[in-house]
């Protein structure tokens, strides 16, 4: 959801339906981190707000290995990512300027955008109003590359409202300055820019027997931390937490059994007392 009004209604419905979740969200999660329309930066298509946890999940098995093996696993995964994105950058014909994702979305939006009604508000400032398919009026500012639907602002390439303005009005109003839809796409979507981001090769670390360690580094004597922790790795910490939880459950079970035993004892004592009273009446 790109606009705040579009986000507000379903979010309010969610808060009303799940009050317990609402308390957690208000206490622990800032709406700027979980909603695209409130986020002050550019997240593009990134859904998660906690990349560290995503990496922890990805390298869950590697984190249980020794340090060098874990580093090798991380390097192998990064090398795989770089190679995949490098091939994606050169995918298709050499004449392609933009990444396939943007090319495909622009091609899908052009037929819909050409059917919309456009009104010029200020041709000098490149400000226009567009009536969308839903009947709402959207304000498009081509100079600042924004639209009130906020897709243009957040995704950094034209929405269907901006496309309708470019196709119907811009070529007549300002033909020299800007005349193509692709002039309004962020440079980050250039295939050249994407290729440059992953141009370097990530090499694996050679075997320890092949290392050429400078003498100055070999002479260094790294000292251990001043305060040594009793728990050496995360596995011990997880085991300790599991053991602690098990003890708590066992204690709760014992307390429950003790309570049940106490209740049974009270019932038995009451029964004995009733029997004694009955015998006295005879």
TrEMBL record:
It comes from Raphanus sativus (Radish). InterPro entries: Znf_PMZ, Znf_SWIM. Keywords: Metal-binding, Zinc, Zinc-finger. This is Uncharacterized protein LOC108850429. One of its GO terms (molecular function) is zinc ion binding. Residues 138-170 form the SWIM-type domain. It holds the Pfam family SWIM. The gene is LOC108850429.
